[in-house]
Amino acid sequence: MHGVKVVNDCRGLTVLADSLLRQLFYNLIDNSLKYGEKISRIRVYYEETGKDQLKLVYEDDGVGIPKAEKEKIFREGYGKGTGYGLYLIEKMCEVYGWTIRETGKPDKGAEFTITIPKENEKGKILYKLQK
Fold first, then answer.
1. Which domain holds residue 83?
2. Distance between CA atoms of 16 and 96, rounded to whole angstroms?
């Protein structure tokens, strides 16, 4: 991790997911370390956005993603590396019934917001909160 501090502010959150979730966060962390340039901190937290969904937020304090690239970064083959990291992250989110967007500010760090509905289309609960 090259001295990068990771802060997990997701206490009390249980997300219904399988081993793809580990790969999703591995890819996000790998991108932060490779392209964040001046990164010293990664934070993951959540925000409730009503009774029917929450936002799971991954952020770093690196250089961020230029505004002109935000719409392109999830395209297959686009990027500085293989072009598959963020593409696959978006596909993983889709498998879970989630959406992901890059919501950071350039020069302030990358921020990825994953919106998770309370239930999937079959009525299965996708996350639980314990307070």
1. 5-129
2. 9
